[in-house]
Amino acid sequence: MGTLALAAKITHVPSMYLSEFPGPNFGCRDAAINGHKEIDRRCRALGVDTIVVFDVHWQVNSEYHINCGPKFGGTYTSNELPHFIKNMPYAYPGNPALGHLIADVANEMGVKSRAHSDTTLELEYGTLVPMRYMNADQHYKVISISGWCDWHDLTESGRFGLAVRRAIEERYEGTVAVFASGSLSHHFADNGRAPEFMHKVYDPFLEQVDRRVVELWEAGDWKTFVGMLPMYADKCWGEGDMHDTAMLLGLLGWDRYAAPVEVVTPYFGSSGTGQINAIFPVTPLPAETTT
């Protein structure tokens, strides 16, 4: 029925918004912004009508949650970094129907999930930052899914990602892109040292592990990466424990996925963290995929 047209791991660093304004950081995130614009261009060419974002800035403590309100709008200031993102306006249409289909399929698979369409839930900046550069004209409907899952298992998050794909392909009549919005390593600069790490990764160990991970992705060696994912998320402070990445891989076939990624924005450091924009080619699911 429906089509999963594009999948990607994307950055949402707040310095992207900061880089729009005159000052010492003006233009510093042009590469990341241009990467978002390139992903948007491809989504439009593929006829995408809805973008689903696994957002690691939405923390939940139980179950999987889907924000599928009929519309979103307001003015956003980050409570985490209010000096980076402040008074940012946004307005996007939602997609309640697809959100409920995702929850239905996940629950049928035994992954407890809830879709929230009659809600005052707002969007977090893991969704708002990329939508600013891809969806300013409200071309796409938007669904945001909690990707900061403190008490969840990465394998279960992979199964949730598989449920997203099944909902799209088996029950939805439309074309969808799915983004894992989060970093690679995610150790921020220590308090008082932020300026010196504006364009750096916190520690050489973290950067070297990140770069090796990108090599595995470019080689399509998902079996190795999935095997190391729990330890990588733990030892390198993966953002949201990297549940967004687990969901993305579940969507694509987990450790049986075999496609090499296409890096759109090369790996870069930002406030101590490791960042990238990379497209994960959508390929047919391996037979009997269960993660």
UniProtKB/TrEMBL annotation:
Q: Does the keyword Lyase apply?
A: no
**In the record, which residues are listed under signal peptide?**
none
- Domain Extradiol ring-cleavage dioxygenase class III enzyme subunit B spans what residues? 7-280
> Coiled coil located at which positions?
none
Q: Does the keyword Oxidoreductase apply?
A: yes
A single Pfam family it belongs to is LigB
What are the entry keywords? Answer: Dioxygenase, Oxidoreductase
Give one GO molecular function term.
ferrous iron binding
Mind telling me what this protein is named? 3,4-dihydroxyphenylacetate 2,3-dioxygenase
Q: Which organism is it from?
A: Variovorax paradoxus (strain S110)
